[in-house]
Amino acid sequence: MAWKYLQFDDRFLANHWTLIHGEIVRPLDGEVIPHAWLAGENKVYDAVLDKTFEASDYVARYRAVVISRCSRLEAAHAAAKHGHSGPWAD
Predict the structure, then answer these.
(1) Domain ranges (residues) in the chain
(2) How confident is residue 9, by pLDDT bands cut at 50, 70 and 90?
């Protein structure tokens, strides 16, 4: 879902946002889960929550850990190569 926002949502086309694949701690049960979000200048957009956070607040609240990050162009190429919106192995 985050990939689609990065590629097609006007709010993220004008700025330097990156796609992050990582892990967060789910607040409901404390389980660590794979997740994707967008990162901009000191901001995080979580497409599942449809909410923008200060980056430090997001990391503290969800204990977010970055596994990989890519630009809009890198994400578009990876999605085309693999046939899905991620995460990608290479």
Answers:
(1) 2-73
(2) confident
